[in-house]
């Protein structure tokens, strides 16, 4: 860009820098979230001309964030346009998941690529803050020791609790029995990596992951219900996460459904979680008070798959309560699609009919477009993928933060469409 000395031109220069940053971000975000795209597709999507896209892609190549390849010959008429894809190792973050039954750590690169991960089950008896933080540090050390050496740019943490995103302060995690934990600060000391740390609620981050690259992709209004030991949800409304005043929104597990119902882990009575969560599942199959966890859920699913009638009946009851709560959310939020993740994703085949019945009975607009209730797509890694997403966000917003290498070895490819003669073919 040419800079001029007059104030008006200087302002235009600042504005152009902002525009350039936005355009770099748009291109990087597109290939990060949706996979490889040709330069001509990127030009169409961004509304920029091809030479501008070529220059922007060249900048991203120079920073090691994307790479280009010549498309394979398609046999179709027309000149091929280079394909732009992220370099997963171009920016790597550490993703951490703190759930009730396990700790997971992963090295996640651009494109949501999990380069390495470790998941370790935890006893529910040994989950004091000190023990869990020490375990995260140890797991991270083992992970880095076993993986290719990479520079970690940032750390994203998904935790099964209510978190203030601004400072990573955990307000309460009923199922971990934690309260008022300065989690970001504690992890910063324990991990000793001098990089930014962002902490989010696990259900919010699962929702972000599913909305970016899972079953919520392409929707503007999307809910993901996430069940592990507890129940949470993330809500996307008009394309944006619904966060509330302090980022604490989405605690649907604690919607009061039965004013005089059972006591919940949160201290209140009759929360939705008490009718659909893991405790409710154990109660429904006659195992109330026994230890929960993934192995117990495996037993339930195995019994359901065998066609055990008592189990199927219990799951229909859970499905009915799922449907009651979801009908409330549908009437309130008008989503296009609802994803069931974690525990609920696994139960989906057995609870879907009861959910559909309740939705049909209680939805105000049931005669209009149906709401899809589908299992989540990203499975157990969804919290890690979402945690990586918030850790990568500053770079995705401003790719110029990544240093130019100048020695990438791969100059930008020529876009055939800029050439007078179609010289190169793959
Ligand atoms: Zn509650």
Strand order of the largest sheet: 6-5-4-7-11
Portion of residues in beta strands equals 15-25%
Which residues form runs of ≥5 with pLDDT under 50?
Answer: 1-5, 408-412, 415-426
Alpha plus pi helix count: 12
Features:
single chain, 426 residues, alpha/beta, 5-stranded mixed sheet, 12 helices, globular, disordered N terminus, disordered C terminus, binds zinc ion
Characterization of this structure:
This protein has 426 residues and is α/β, with parallel strands linked by helices. It contains twelve helices and 16 strands. It has helices at residues 7-34, 39-46, 50-62, 129-146, 183-191, 202-213, 273-276, 278-284, 294-305, 309-333, 343-362, 382-397; strands at residues 37-38, 66-69, 83-86, 92-98, 102-109, 113-121, 152-159, 162-164, 169-173, 178-181, 197-201, 222-227, 231-237, 240-241, 337-342, 372-375. A five-stranded mixed beta sheet has the order 6-5-4-7-11, sandwiched between helices. Strands 14-13-12-15-16 form a five-stranded mixed beta sheet. The chain is globular, with a radius of gyration of 24 Å. Bound molecules: zinc ion. Zinc ion binds at residues 254, 264, 266, 268, 271, 273.
Q: In a nutshell, what does this entry contain?
A:
With 426 residues, this protein is of the alpha/beta class.
Secondary-structure blueprint:
Layout: H1 7-34, E1 37-38, H2 39-46, H3 50-62, E2 66-69, E3 83-86, E4 92-98, E5 102-109, E6 113-121, H4 129-146, E7 152-159, E8 162-164, E9 169-173, E10 178-181, H5 183-191, E11 197-201, H6 202-213, E12 222-227, E13 231-237, E14 240-241, H7 273-276, H8 278-284, H9 294-305, H10 309-333, E15 337-342, H11 343-362, E16 372-375, H12 382-397
Helix pairs in contact: 1-3, 2-3, 4-5, 6-12, 9-11, 10-11
Bound molecules: zinc ion.
């Amino acid at each position: 860009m040419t800079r001029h000395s007059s104030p008006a031109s200087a302002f235009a220069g600042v504005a152009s820098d902002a525009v350039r940053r936005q355009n770099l971000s748009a291109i990087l975000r597109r290939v990060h979230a949706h996979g490889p795209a040709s330069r001509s597709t990127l030009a169409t999507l961004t509304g920029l001309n091809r030479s501008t896209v070529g220059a922007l892609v060249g900048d991203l190549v120079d920073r090691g964030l994307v790479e280009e390849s010549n498309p394979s010959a398609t046999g179709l008429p027309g000149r091929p346009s280079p394909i732009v894809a992220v370099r997963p190792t171009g920016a790597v973050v550490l993703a951490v998941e703190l759930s009730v039954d396990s700790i997971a750590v992963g090295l996640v690169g651009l494109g949501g690529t999990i380069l390495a991960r470790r998941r370790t089950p935890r006893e529910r008896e040994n989950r004091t803050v000190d023990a869990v933080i020490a375990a995260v540090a140890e797991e991270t050390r083992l992970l880095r020791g076993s993986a290719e050496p990479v520079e970690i740019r940032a750390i994203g943490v998904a935790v099964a609790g209510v978190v203030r995103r601004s400072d990573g302060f955990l307000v309460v995690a009923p199922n971990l029995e934690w309260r008022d934990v300065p989690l970001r600060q504690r992890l910063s000391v324990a991990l000793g990596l001098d990089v930014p740390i962002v902490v989010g609620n696990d259900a919010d981050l699962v929702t972000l992951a599913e909305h970016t690259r899972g079953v919520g992709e392409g929707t503007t209004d999307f809910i993901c219900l996430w069940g592990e030991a507890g129940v949470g949800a993330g809500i996307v409304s008009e394309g944006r996460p619904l966060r509330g005043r302090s980022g604490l929104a989405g605690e649907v597990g604690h919607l009061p459904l039965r004013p005089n119902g059972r006591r919940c882990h949160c201290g209140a009575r009759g929360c939705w979680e008490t009718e659909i969560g893991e405790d409710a599942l154990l109660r429904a199959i006659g195992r109330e008070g026994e230890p929960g966890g993934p192995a117990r859920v495996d037993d339930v699913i195995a019994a359901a798959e065998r066609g055990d009638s008592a189990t199927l009946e219990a799951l229909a009851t859970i499905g009915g309560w799922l449907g009651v709560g979801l009908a409330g959310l549908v009437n309130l939020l008008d989503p296009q699609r609802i994803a069931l993740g974690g525990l609920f994703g696994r139960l989906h085949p057995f609870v879907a009919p009861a959910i559909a019945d309740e939705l049909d009975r209680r939805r105000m607009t049931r005669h209009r477009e149906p709401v899809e209730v589908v299992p989540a797509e990203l499975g157990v890694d969804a919290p890690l993928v979402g945690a990586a997403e918030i850790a990568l966000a500053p770079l995705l917003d401003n790719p110029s933060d990544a240093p130019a290498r100048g020695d990438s070895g791969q100059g930008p490819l020529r876009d055939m469409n800029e050439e007078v003669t179609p010289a190169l073919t793959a």
